[in-house]
Specification:
single chain, 15 helices, globular
Length: about 375
């Protein structure tokens, strides 16, 4: 058994990290774990942290069974501190706390490990807070920064880290994980893995909740059936409403958990009166929930845009007869019908429009406007 057993499709990265963690390896004190969303950045970072603290590591890989391995993977080891954000940015105060923690010697293990998930969400000013700590870390401190791409971080940070590049996990490998770990039926597992485009978390949701996959395929059919600008605008509104509902549900659940934990820790009974001295902290929790919802809406919209991209990619695949595996095998008939509607050159132009829509959303253009412009372009191509 190894802590990397659930890391999918990242053999080169696992080999690189295992060599570094082995007694004869060269362990850098700052690492950049770069890979697309869903590739398992945080999972492989925690597996590496477990390997560094494992009591029975072999070949630089943690055993996954000793107490240090179990507690690191569970997120409860005292020498491993992680920061992740569900809002738009990681604040300077969060990074300052990490930098302060990094100065302390390990409490029980050989190393103190600091993991920053979504490190690309740090502002330029926050980079400056982190820079000194990465340049001159204490001897037994190891930093792990997780990002979609090395270019998402400032050059001053990037140049001081050793880079680990992750790839998009192959659909077959993701499907096998769903079958073996989650007990998903093989046909559904392969459809879910293909539709998720290598995103392990989304594939798992599709596999465990087939209605989500059916809804995605139904949306793809409606996309291909759009015939007028009016239909396009109505469909954009439907997608926005769905994204907001999904995001707010997730944000409200997280907010309720945090509020409950705070109230319990403060000794306040459910429904009890909040003392004036604690009202500012409760308001801060509410403000955090609003920021979380804003980020989640954008994340869901971006996922919908990637779904649209996958549909157009499948159309182009069939138009060019490349023989590549379809991302959306459940709607192959509708995809083949679309191949006769416009030329491959037009399909390529529409794929560029999807990229433009994603850029616009990333630059704070209202998502509905970006989506309406894209869907109108798809209609105009008929």
């Amino acid at each position: 058994m190894s802590v990397y057993d659930t890391v999918v499709g990242q053999a080169a990265a696992v080999a690189q990290l295992s060599r570094a963690a082995s007694p004869e390896g060269s362990l850098a004190q700052a690492w950049l774990v770069a890979g697309p969303p869903g590739s398992g950045r945080s999972s492989i970072a925690r597996a590496f942290a477990a390997s560094l603290l494992c009591d029975n590591a072999v070949g630089g890989q943690g055993c996954g069974e000793c107490q240090p391995c179990r507690t690191v993977l569970a997120g409860s080891h005292g020498d491993v501190t992680g920061v992740r954000t569900e809002t738009l940015t990681i604040s300077k105060n969060e990074v300052r706390e990490l930098v302060s923690t990094a100065q302390r010697a390990p409490a029980s293990g050989r190393h103190r490990v600091l993991i920053i998930e979504d490190a690309d969400r740090m502002s330029p000013g926050t980079f400056n807070v982190l820079l000194k700590a990465i340049e001159e870390p204490p001897p037994r401190t190891v930093w792990l920064l997780c990002v979609p791409s090395p270019q998402d971080l400032a050059q001053t940070i990037r140049s001081r880290c050793r880079v680990v590049n992750l790839q998009v996990p192959p659909p077959d490998a993701v499907a096998m994980l769903l079958i073996e770990r989650d007990g998903v039926e093989p046909e559904l597992a392969h459809r879910a893995a293909a539709s998720a485009q290598g995103h392990i978390g989304i594939a798992r949701r599709y596999g465990l909740h087939p209605d989500s996959l059916a809804e995605r395929e139904d949306s793809a059919r409606k996309l291909l059936a759009l015939t007028s600008v009016g239909h396009a605008l109505a469909f954009a509104k439907t997608l926005i409403d769905r994204a907001e509902a999904e995001a707010h549900t997730e944000a409200d659940e997280a907010s309720a958990r945090e509020r409950e934990q705070f109230m319990r820790g403060a000794g306040i009974e459910p429904g009890g009166r909040i003392p004036p001295a604690l009202r500012a902290q409760v308001k801060a929790l509410d403000d955090e929930a609003k920021r979380r919802a804003t980020r989640l809406v954008r994340d869901v919209i971006d996922r919908y845009l990637l779904d649209i991209h996958s549909v157009l990619r499948d159309v182009l695949t069939l138009q060019l007869n490349t023989g590549a595996t379809l991302v959306n095998p459940g709607i192959e008939r509708e995809l083949r019908d679309r191949t006769h509607v416009h030329s491959p050159q037009t399909t390529l132009a529409l794929l560029d429009c999807v990229g433009t829509a994603r850029e616009r959303v990333g630059m704070n253009v209202p998502p509905q406007l970006a989506l309406e412009a894209l869907l109108a372009a798809i209609v105009a191509a008929r």
